[in-house]
Amino acid sequence: QVQFVESGGGLVQPGESLVLSCSVSGIAFSAYEMGWYRQAPGNQRDLVAAVPITHTTNYADSVKGRFTISRDNAKNTLYLQMNSLKPEETAVYYCALDTRLVGIMTTSRDVEFWGQGTQVTVSS
After folding, report:
1. Which of 3, 17, 58, 92 pairs as cysteine with 117 (C-beta 3.0–4.6 A)?
2. Which helix (H) or strand (E) is 113 found in, with range?
3. Do 98 and 32 touch, CB atoms closer than 8 A?
4. How many degrees, rounded to 5, is the angle at CA 111 between CA 110 and CA 112?
5. Please, what is the Cα angle at 91 between 93 and 124, to 5 degrees?
């Protein structure tokens, strides 16, 4: 049974920072690409950042330079450091795992396993 435990969401003011974490069990964490997606009400679920098993990272253009994705294979944990947060980035953030072994994580259709999401609200 694959299990994700997400944490780190909350309410922050514009310009502040948050760190999200996703602890994974029940699967060989280091063997698969993982990433973070976000979804606001009425919108599609879009990729924020991804890290393949090569540790090469990919980011949405809107977050490049402000967000950092990382993984600790020894701890089976995925992280997202989010700096200089903007109100339009208010959304539910989802941890995601791609079991295909080939290809690049892009759309939500590439994801086999999802975390339950953590709410990030950026507001003054």
Report:
1. 92
2. strand 113-114
3. yes
4. 125
5. 130
pLDDT at 55 over 70: no
The amino acid at 81: Q
d(CA 11, CA 2): 29
| Nearest alpha-carbon partner for 51 in 77, 86, 12 | 77
pLDDT exceeds cutoff 70 at 37: yes
Percent of the chain predicted with pLDDT > 70: 99
Residues in the chain: 124
Residues 19, 79 contacting (CB under 8 angstroms)? yes
Is residue 119 within 8 Å of 61, Cβ to Cβ?
no
When pLDDT is averaged across residues 65-91 and rounded to a whole number, the result is 97
CA distances from 119 to 11, 66, 77, 100 (A): 8, 19, 19, 28
